[in-house]
Amino acid sequence: MKDLLDIYYKGFAEKANWETVIADDFKFVGGDMMNTTPVVGKQDYIEVIKRFSRLFESMRAKEMIIEGNKACVIGNYDYQFPNGQKINGNVAEIWTSKDNKLKSLTIYFDTLTFANNSK
User: Fewest CB atoms within 10 A around its CB: which of 27, 83, 87, 110?
Assistant: First the structure.
């Protein structure tokens, strides 16, 4: 799990090659706590990240707790929003892996601040 996350976060910070460790049937939940229906599939997750990556200038994995095929990562992001606002924020990222691929991700973050600055 640690190797998978290291590859993912190195690529995610560079905005390149992070998708190599994502399972084809990957499940993602996040961004709307009123709708917890997962985005299913590697390609659909890639599309989510294409939109999201326009909003962050840099990121780093701040903390990692790994237990078997499960992990919790605190990702720290420097955002540049379309309205000009620059914000630094943490995102709690809950992962699972299977068959040497990242299988699922659920994220938790300050959705109100994010929404107010993304308009």
Answer: 83
Distances from the Cα of 14 to the Cα of 58, 68, 97, 116, 117, angstroms = 8, 27, 22, 26, 23
| Whole-number Å distance between alpha carbons of 9 and 18 | 7
Q: What is the pLDDT of residue 79?
A: 94
pTM of the full structure: 0.91
Look at residues 105, 118, 115, 114 and name the one whose alpha carbon lies nearest to residue 21.
105
Res. 33: pLDDT tops 80: no
Kindly list the distances between the CA atom of residue 27 and the CA atoms of 39, 71, 96, in Å, as whole numbers in the listed order.
6, 15, 10
